[in-house]
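Feature request, filed as a ticket because there's no other form

It would be nice if the structure record came with a short human-readable summary line next to the tokens. Right now we just get the raw output. Example of a typical job, pasted below so the devs can see what we mean:
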Amino acid sequence: MFDKPLSDVTFDDIQELSDEQIEESMILDYKQELNDYSIIKQVTAFSNTKGGYLVYGIAETGKGGHPQSINGIESDFNKERLEQIILGNIIPRVSVQIKKIPIPDTDRVILLVHIPEGQSKPYYNNQDKRYYKRYNFSATPMDENEVEWLYQSRFFGMSKLERYIEDAIYSSQNKLPHELQLHGIEGHVVVTPLKIDGQMFEPSPEFGRELMDLHSSKIKDCHGYLTYSIRPSKFGIKWDDGDHLHNASNKVEIHRNGLVHSMKSCGSFYKENYIKRFDDELLACNLLQTLKFTSTFYSKINYIGKVKIMVKIFNCANSILTNGDSDNNDEMKCDSEEVLVERQWDSWKLEEDCVLIAKYIMDEVSNYYGLWNSRLFYEEAGVINYRGSYE
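Raw output as currently delivered:
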């Protein structure tokens, strides 16, 4: 159960916990009944420790014991209400996965709640005004020193991530001479865990090819996004077009710490009339592809948690948005040298929500050009759709 996505967990996995007499631990807790107050407390504790699983509908042999019976809970509880209870009572907001697992030949279910380790510790239970940790098979209040240490770690981690992104990705772009920047507009898409400590995978040509094959199975033609040129880099693995003219090439790179970076040209400079054109569709396509590719990458390395999504555009001052309007329309001109848009999302929802995420980001990018919304998205029957093609 612990080595597969939550969507693949079945009742057989729950039965195995009982058959193998798997005891409660730092990452596993059995509960016989579902209680709104208790789940807030338990989720807070797991988030502040190492993450883990809450399994409702199981009676254990005692504190820290193994399953004694699988009785289940009533199947008619409101899953959405439960999610809102968790989201509305824990600060900052946590990310949990919830699944109902039917018990064969009954009208009852097992409720499985997966809580990833929090990346913005400490988490605060706003219902009873306490911080909790997982200790000795239960949720235990944290002392002041523990809370202070987690706050220090959070703010240090955030500044470390910002420095890493600046040094690893953006600093080389800022150092380009002005005459080289005139060759076009560059759009960078970065998706990264909020914590970047440690190594999540071992770079190798085999890993790169396997990841490319997995992405190709989801995308009809991914070769416009990933090239056949798989190379090692100082950060991990990169796919690039081999064109290093002016120190700027289209590339996709995955870092050992789980960061994904895609850089694509998304505009041109025309010397004959001194006009820069920004192609928002190229940027949106790159963003959508990167979200899907990152989802595939995280599935392969079994990463689950909050991620930061960043879109940064360089050299866009005085550029005109390419959307069929006149080049001389001042309302469509950007007056900023750089554009930066950020969002946070759950890693396991990147593929499912990729169009929604892209709309939010591209709407904000369009604001820089004097537009309320991006022309590339529309809503139909309550569903956000993308007008272009990225598959």
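Something like this underneath would help us a lot:
Confidence is low (pLDDT under 50) at residues 324-330.
Residues 73 and 261 are 44 Å apart (CA to CA).
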